């Protein structure tokens, strides 16, 4: 990892670094598309260019920052404003990557302002939240020692696919103290930027994703009886999983904030040519878990169910993502304190909520840090063909982040 500090006089004007709208325009214009596991390359893919921009941003501010290499060409960037070691430390976290741009009906990297909105890929998920956090961080740095907390600004990579960046950061906290750096050491609290319509998400579902393979025997399609079709076998697996998913919805006890568990098959591949009986078929499964559910146990249950329902020979591959759920039994002090700040700024009161999707907050909570999810924009606009965010909410979120870090009323590190 690389830790740097630059004490030069910053060339950015105060109005530039404090304006979340201007920052968001810059962020949208820098492609940082996650290829989602596909073998893709080109200037729009991965986070390298945005990482370079962030390094320049923190360098201009003159605040200590750290570059954490996570994977080839992919890094976290973390900066820290240290006011007083006796104060609580609050981490503001936003991910650098966006989902792909296929099917978009607007120019994805040309920010467009219209009717009180700004459009572009990442405007809502989650460069809007990142811009509000960066603006807050810069404002606090400029003001010096007036904040009521030490503030860490964390910009992680690969959230949209496997959350490598968040896991890498959280793993650093479990290392011995000598290997931790002052910049990225464990915070006391964390706020994760996602589009929550300025409500506070205190619980959400987890997710485990893995593949199931069936194995056949290839032969010429003119004599299919000489082989064994992996696709026919997979049809039995798919039918059984559909039955399992229906029972899961009907019989599982729903969480009061997150709803029910779920299972879906998102992808199927098999065969090499129409004139060859297929020797391999593969599906990809998405299982959403509730707080209290263990991914290892639920995988075991699904395998046992399939073996009882079918006589097919199949194999499970290790999960490529196993993200825990976020429970609401560890973050109430943080949530209440943040809500006090929010409802002192917005006209319509906001509340604590749950979510059906997953975020980096569960990874940080699993690392021992009370975490909530909060940011501008609506999840209904995330990943859409004409992604946008309301400019008013962007500015409100910026003010909320700022006021909370400046005066985190009621926040206690004694939990």
TrEMBL record:
Matching InterPro entries: ArgE/DapE, ArgE/DapE_CS, Bact_exopeptidase_dim_dom, Peptidase_M20, Peptidase_M20_dimer, Peptidase_M20A
Keyword NAD set for record: no
Reactions mediated catalytically: N-succinyl-(2S,6S)-2,6-diaminopimelate + H2O = (2S,6S)-2,6-diaminopimelate + succinate
Keyword Cytoplasm: no
Top EC category: hydrolase
Pfam families: M20_dimer, Peptidase_M20
Entry's Gene Ontology BP terms: L-arginine biosynthetic process; lysine biosynthetic process via diaminopimelate
GO MF term list: acetylornithine deacetylase activity; metal ion binding; succinyl-diaminopimelate desuccinylase activity
Cofactors required: Co(2+); Zn(2+)
Domain Peptidase M20 dimerisation: start-end pairs: 202-309
PANTHER family, per the entry: ACETYLORNITHINE DEACETYLASE (PTHR43808), N-ACETYL-L-CITRULLINE DEACETYLASE (PTHR43808:SF31)
UniProt similarity note: Belongs to the peptidase M20A family.
Name by which UniProt lists this protein: Probable succinyl-diaminopimelate desuccinylase
Protein's organism: Rubinisphaera italica
């Amino acid at each position: 990892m690389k830790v740097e500090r630059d004490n030069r006089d910053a060339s950015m004007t105060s109005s530039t670094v404090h304006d979340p709208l201007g920052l968001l325009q810059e962020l949208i214009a820098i492609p940082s598309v996650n290829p989602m596991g596909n073998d893709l390359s080109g200037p729009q893919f991965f986070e390298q260019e945005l990482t370079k921009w962030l390094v320049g941003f923190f360098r201009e501010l003159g605040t200590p920052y750290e570059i954490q290499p996570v994977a080839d060409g992919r890094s976290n960037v973390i900066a820290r404003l240290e006011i007083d070691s006796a104060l609580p430390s609050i981490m503001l976290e936003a991910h650098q990557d966006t989902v792909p741009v296929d099917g978009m009906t607007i120019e994805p990297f040309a920010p467009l302002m219209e009717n009180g909105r700004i459009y572009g890929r990442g405007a809502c998920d989650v460069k809007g939240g990142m811009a509000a956090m960066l603006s807050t961080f810069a404002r606090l740095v400029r003001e010096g020692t007036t904040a009521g907390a030490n503030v860490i600004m964390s910009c992680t990579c690969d959230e949209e696919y496997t959350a490598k960046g968040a896991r890498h950061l959280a793993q650093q906290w479990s290392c011995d103290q000598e290997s931790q750096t002052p910049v990225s050491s464990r915070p006391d609290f964390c706020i994760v930027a996602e589009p929550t319509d300025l409500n506070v998400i205190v619980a959400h579902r987890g997710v485990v994703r893995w593949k199931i393979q069936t194995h056949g025997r290839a032969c010429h399609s003119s004599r299919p009886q000489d082989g064994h079709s992996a696709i026919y076998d997979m049809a039995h697996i798919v039918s059984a999983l559909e039955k399992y998913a229906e029972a899961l919805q009907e019989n599982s006890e729903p969480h009061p904030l997150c709803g029910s568990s779920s299972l879906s098959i998102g992808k199927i591949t098999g065969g090499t040519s129409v004139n060859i009986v297929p020797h391999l078929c593969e599906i990809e499964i998405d299982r959403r878990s509730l707080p209290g559910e263990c991914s290892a146990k639920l995988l075991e249950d699904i395998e046992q169910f399939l073996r009882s329902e079918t006589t097919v020979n199949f194999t499970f591959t290790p999960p490529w993502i196993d993200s825990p759920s976020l429970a609401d039994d560890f973050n109430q002090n943080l949530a209440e304190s943040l809500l006090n700040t929010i409802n002192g700024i917005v006209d319509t009161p906001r509340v604590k909520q749950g979510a059906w999707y997953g975020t980096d907050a569960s990874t940080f909570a699993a690392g021992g840090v009370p975490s909530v999810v909060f940011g501008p924009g609506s999840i209904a606009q995330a990943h859409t063909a004409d992604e946008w965010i309301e400019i008013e909410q962007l500015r409100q979120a910026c003010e909320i982040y700022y006021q909370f870090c400046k005066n985190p009323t009621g926040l206690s590190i004694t939990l």
